[in-house]
Design brief:
alpha/beta; FAD/NAD(P)-binding domain; nine-stranded mixed β-sheet; six-stranded mixed β-sheet; 14 helices
């Protein structure tokens, strides 16, 4: 097959690798696979990426050799922390694998080249015709997908721009626990999502609601001014360490959905298809699972592209939709924190853990008995028995 892939992020690269590795394993002539990426090879925006055990298990099961390469420089920690009203509440048994985004991409670049996948950098493609006569076109070109936009009447996307503002920084302050920090300042509430992903650096994603954003004047500040404001807001947490910028401008997150996942021989995967949300760290996981599902559809249907794409939707849509709904609930939790701010730190952390609706008290007790015990002591009325 001749396969053109628009977008050199995890979704497109992982799919390319699986397809070509399979041909080599079967001793068949390789596919003609070309990946085109608009950015330079060494460009990376954001800082680290984070995966749960479950997310990486999908990669380990289907491509253990790539799992080893991807995780060679990973940091693994088993703890989360919620800081509210200046009090740190530890959440146990939350294992996360963290790595630099550039390390993840470099591992995927090397794997693709090892199996003969061609990658062209610094090339933007808005029209699939620019790829030549392909049997299959993979639109893995992100949340602002040009391919999806070009065929919007067929894919019927919904772009839900959420109200909160975010800025993606790094810092030399090392947060071993994946930490969620809620700081009430003169202008309102600011939130940091932060975790160490290398021996030298942590991701430090700052979030604030529209009222805080406007009152603080962040909409009028320069990039340097915004960075300085955030350093002051989180001075107690940064402990003298600076925030670092990498095109760290404020943005509002767009949650993407599509009524149709494919059109003709074009299929959407990764953020072009649907986005999660940074608060649940699901974007890269969703992308990798899309790649696996599309590869499995090929294994079932062979080179019958229409049948393959229908099979992709059949096997992938249920799990994708479930995670998307959980991401939406998580997003809404951060957008409506006002009524929760008076809560004591333990109750606030408990509310965070149960925010998606997928975790009940029994699950909290199973995962984190100390948190369950602390919450029960504060809320005995939930366990009172009638006389």
């Amino acid at each position: 097959m001749k396969i053109g892939i628009v977008g050199g992020g995890p979704a497109g690269l992982f799919y390319a690798y699986l397809m070509q590795r399979d041909r080599i394993a079967e001793g068949k002539p390789p596919h003609d696979i070309h990946v085109v990426e608009r950015d330079a090879e060494d460009a990376t925006y954001g800082w680290g990426v984070v995966f749960s055990d479950v997310a990486l298990a999908f990669v380990r099961d289907i491509a253990p050799e790539l799992y080893d390469a991807m995780t060679a420089k990973q940091e693994v920690f088993d703890e989360m922390a919620v800081v509210h009203r200046g009090v740190r509440v530890t959440l146990a048994h939350n294992t996360f694998h963290r790595m630099a985004r550039i390390d993840l991409l470099e591992a995927l670049h090397a794997a693709c080249r090892d199996v003969g996948v061609a990658i062209a950098f610094g090339r933007r493609v808005d029209d699939p015709a620019a790829l030549g006569d392909c049997d299959l076109v993979i639109a893995a070109d992100g949340a602002n997908s040009a391919i999806r936009t070009r065929y919007a009447e067929h894919f019927q996307p919904t772009l839900d721009v959420r109200p909160n503002w975010l800025a993606w920084y790094g810092t030399t302050r090392l947060f071993d626990a994946l930490s969620l920090i809620f700081r009430q300042v003169d202008d309102g509430l600011v939130i940091a999502h932060t975790y160490r992903y290398s021996p030298q650096l942590s991701t430090f994603l700052v979030e604030c609601d529209p009222a805080t954003f406007a009152k603080a004047g962040l909409d009028r500040m320069s990039e340097a001014g915004s960075l300085a404001y955030c350093e002051r807001a989180f001075a107690e947490d940064l402990q003298g360490h600076p925030l670092l910028s990498n095109r760290s401008t404020w943005f509002r997150y767009t949650m993407v959905r599509n009524v149709r996942w494919h059109h003709g021989n074009i299929v959407l995967i990764g953020d072009a298809l649907r986005t999660g949300h940074p608060s649940v760290g699901s974007g890269t996981r969703l992308a990798l699972q899309d790649s696996i599902a599309l590869f499995q559809a090929y294994k079932t249907c062979g080179e019958d592209v229409p049948a393959m794409l229908d099979e992709f939707v059949r096997i992938r849509q249920p799990g994708s939709e479930s995670l998307r709904k959980a991401a939406l609930k998580s997003t809404e939790w951060y957008e409506d924190l006002g009524p929760k701010l008076p809560l004591d730190p333990v109750s606030f952390a408990y509310d965070y853990v149960t925010r998606s609706g997928r975790v009940d008290h029994a699950e909290v007790r199973k995962r984190d008995p100390d948190l369950a015990d602390a919450w029960e002591r504060l809320h005995p009325e939930h366990f009172a028995r009638p006389d």
